[in-house]
Design brief:
This protein is of the alpha/beta class. The protein has a domain of 219 residues: Rossmann fold. It has twelve helices and eight strands. Helix 5 packs across helix 6.
């Protein structure tokens, strides 16, 4: 509380005789300002003309020293500013700057990717037999329509929507897995990769990560070759040199490589982060599809899930048990986005016609 001070009203005749009157008494508000310290609220004095050629720091009005018995908050210490002319900018000019507008698509992760040099693939294209693909019930990339094509177009739209929403390199790494063998994970991974390769100005790398039973190369009619496991074992090998080209526009294949007895240990090492990051570095239009081992049959699936932003867990209709799906989801919990993909379904309660994945031209779900 401030010390009470008596303010003498002007023109009061009773106190004129015993109260000394100053030469300039001032108004009631002026004397109240002097008594209670309102002077420090006055605006700063601005010169009529500012010096030209350099920025000027506006003078700060001096505050009236507080009375010893006044209770007030401590005065904040002024921030130290450099004495260079570039930093000596008036406060009014700083407030006049327009607000910074941040582009929603310019995410920090995407900026880092675009800032790095794109890792290019130089493998020569290998001829892929379309008849061989059709014989296995796979999508023929030369056919623009069909039940199987349309079904996987629906799946790929969901994958691309997640990639666009997240915008990171990790979201462009997609794990295709199943709880047990024989539920169609390789079939779904292959057809999804072919469907994604049909996107304009996009690249797809189909990685055979089922080191125990690799089958991607045989699916495309290609011979086994060095691949992912070789790059993980040997730091001198660049993974991009092992990626094989195909005559399917936009589709690349990375074989599994030579099997080792420590697949899960190699995948859990720091080398895996370096290798997988090279597959997507600087290439925001490149998606990597992993055909992984079954989650309940081999441990590498859980390690791969940590490096992927999306996972499609394939469940075969009338075959995959609910308990197996729940256990697989727990093992793949390192991936932030896990979705179920129903395979080999023949009935839909909504009335939509579903067919088998394992027959070309039949619809699937």
């Amino acid at each position: 509380m401030n010390k009470p001070i008596k303010i003498v009203p002007p023109g009061d005749g009773k106190d004129k005789a015993d109260t000394p009157q100053p030469a300039d008494k001032g108004s009631l508000f002026e004397r109240a300002s002097g008594a209670f310290g309102f002077d420090n609220l006055a605006p700063a004095r601005v010169p009529a003309k500012l010096p030209q050629g350099k920025a000027v720091r506006m003078p700060i009005p001096a505050r009236r020293p507080a009375a010893p018995d006044d209770l007030h908050e401590p005065e904040p210490r002024p921030e130290s500013r450099p004495e260079s002319h570039a930093d000596a900018v008036p406060a009014v000019a700083a407030r006049a700057q327009p607000p910074v507008v941040i582009d929603a698509d310019a995410r920090p992760s995407r900026q880092r990717e675009l800032g790095g040099r794109k890792v290019e693939f130089t493998g020569k294209p290998h001829a892929i037999s379309r008849a061989h693909l059709r014989d296995q019930g796979m999508i023929d990339p030369e056919l623009g329509s069909g039940g199987l094509v349309e079904e996987f177009r629906i799946v790929k739209r969901q994958v691309l929507a997640s990639v666009e929403a997240d915008g990171t390199a990790k979201s462009r790494r997609v794990l295709i897995c199943s709880p047990h063998p024989g539920e169609g994970k390789t079939f779904c991974a292959t057809n999804l990769a072919i469907a994604l390769a049909g996107e304009r100005q996009s690249e797809v790398v189909l990685v055979d990560a089922d080191f125990g039973k690799p089958s991607i190369m045989a699916t495309f009619g290609l011979d086994p070759a060095p691949g992912l496991m070789d790059a993980l074992r040997d730091p001198a090998i660049k993974v991009e040199d092992l990626v094989l080209g195909t005559d399917i526009p936009g589709l690349w294949i990375l074989p599994a490589g030579e099997r080792s007895g420590s697949d899960a240990e190699y995948l859990a090492s720091e080398r895996t982060w370096e290798v997988l990051n090279r597959l997507t570095r600087g290439a925001h239009d490149r998606i990597v599809i992993f055909d992984s081992p079954p989650a309940l049959a081999a441990s590498p699936a859980a390690e791969l899930a940590k490096h992927c932003g999306q996972a499609l867990l394939v469940a075969r209709a009338d075959s995959t048990a609910r308990a197996a799906l729940e256990d697989a989801v727990d093992l793949l919990s390192g991936c932030p986005d896990i979705r179920l993909l129903l395979n080999d379904a023949t009935f839909s309660p909504s009335g939509r016609k579903f067919g088998k994945y394992y027959g070309y031209g039949e619809s699937a779900s």
